[in-house]
Amino acid sequence: MIDKTIPYVKFQMERNTTQALPDRQLPEGYQVSFYTPGDERDWQVIETSVGEFDHLSEAQRYFQKSFAPYPDELAKRMTFVTDPSGKKVATCTAWWASFPLIAV
What we know:
Layout: E1 31-34, H1 40-49, H2 56-66, H3 71-77, E2 78-82, E3 88-93
Antiparallel strand pairs: 1-2, 2-3
Helix pairs in contact: 1-2
């Protein structure tokens, strides 16, 4: 759940692409899958459930504005974790930065 009492700070995570990724395993029965058409409702439900949005309608508007115009990119950049029953329970999206980066 997102703690909205903490001020929001925009930041960007970067990784040197020559560095190998660590090997991580999901618990047995859980799987990672990429977005396919129709997954937008699952994304909206997950993001609303963790407090990113107060209402599903807000999540729907955000998805339509920010992601829906780029269906080919969604298939490469949005992932879900499914539980053993096949229900999508988590999501992560690697999207473009839309703000100036500040070096610290």
